[in-house]
Design brief:
Distance between the termini: 19 Å
Strand order of the largest sheet: 4-8-5-9-3-2-10-1-11
Order of helices and strands: HHHHHHHHHHEHEEHEEEEEEEHEHHHHH
Largest sheet: 9 strands, mixed
Low-confidence stretches: none
Shape: elongated
Helix content: 55-70%
Radius of gyration: 34 Å
Number of strands: 11
Number of helices: 18
Mean pLDDT: 76
Strand content: 5-15%
Amino acid sequence: MGLSVKDTLRVNAGENVAAASLGSVLGLAAYLGVNEVMARVGLPGLQWYPADGRPEWSTVAVCLVGCPAPAWIVGLLGARRAALSPIAVRRTAERRPPRTWGALLLVPGMGVIVGYCAMSVLGKDPSGGTASSTLVPTAVLLTGTGLVLGLPPVTAWLARRTAAVSRSLPLTLAMRRTEVDPGASLRVTTGLVLLVFGASLTQGVLIELDQVSRRTAPLQEYQIRLSELSGDQRKELVRLPDVRAHLTTYSSWSPPGEPGGIGLDVVVGTCGQAARTAISLRGCVDGEVMRLSGPVPPTEYDPKPGDRFPFALQNGRKAVLAVPEASAEVDAYQPSVLRPDTLLLPPSKAPVGLAAGAGSLTLVSGADAETVRAVLDGIGRVAPTAEVDAVGIAIDALAQLAVVRSLLVVGMVLGLVVGVAAFVVSVADRALERRGQVAALGLLGARAGTLRGVQVVQVVVPLGVGLGGAVVAGWLAEASYLITGGGAVHWDWEGLPVLVASAVGVLVVAGVASVPMVRRHVDPELVRRD
């Protein structure tokens, strides 16, 4: 119509900016409303006040400017080809085949990832070192980029091979169309492919965090200083539902100025209580003071039979305990209160009135995450001000892991919803672009079911290729991350079905959403223009 190239690009960019600006305002308004509701409901492991979630003015400005600015740039760059050569972008014009260089990025990326996975299968441990910390992130970036850029050539090759052997009219039409215009798959599937690929890596990060924040032994100990507990609180703590056993430990008294590390710890309890805490306890005699020995070397000081150690009493005096000849062999999950350099003291032979400042109460439970969390919650209800030392684990890390897991799950769900919604919008947009071709096929006698089948296949095939590659590459990338991390878990078999189910769910939603986009109504004007 005579508009210059520059003005044409500005008009297109202005439309993008208007849509992005409206979307930014609606997104901020939706977030503010959701924040007020979710702050009162909360997430698993995460609670906050509504004011904490309200963005600052600088954040609001970034959102309102950060969305329209890229939209302006994309509007200028994306329409340049159409503005310079309108005939070249007509659907009937000859298109250049997709470039295959993008798919070549998969070769080094997957080569590194598969190499680490093969080393794990062969029984070798490649964890540690600076090489893996550099190679794995680089391989992940190359693989993710190769998945996106390699999707058009792979889709075109698959469509060409499928159309050559197909005897189904809807499948042949769909594959020939995909072969001619494979770049459409890049536009409508990039976000979902990257989302599924990122979900795999996210699961690996959660597994790694879980491994470093929890105890690997099947039993978990909790130590609380007796000086922070009353008699009633001690009775309530030992009766917690998930507590299997309890022991009381005391440390010997040392005069001021004496070097540390030379002392004796005694565990007040019966052989049965100690046996429920240890892997095995052999040679223990009830009612007798036993010197514990075992395969683990003493931590600091190895007391010998006949050595005498003073223990502080509540009245300020000292009670002296001697190391006996009798010994019991103990094998316990370390770290533990049952060590080879301690004494097992029956309650009947414990000095009366041992000072609480030198003692601590040890509770024992299972080590699974739910049990640990339940015991910690129980201790918090009974003694909210007492400091708890969960042996072998970091309580702060457990809390942070719950927060990170909640945020990642919410992010992945929102990303999946937004990605599917954007995909459906893109499918609808492309269906409108193809109305002329649909009308022409209708004039030639194509049935409505055939046209719908073509539309569904055109949508599902490129998306299935991308999601399938994302699931396989993401799972292998997650495995390489776990292998080089040095943890006990190398293969996330539990997370794989979740990824596959998510990918299949996206395919079903995309296929169902594409069915009503096809209309068989013949518009002669569309046919004439085509």
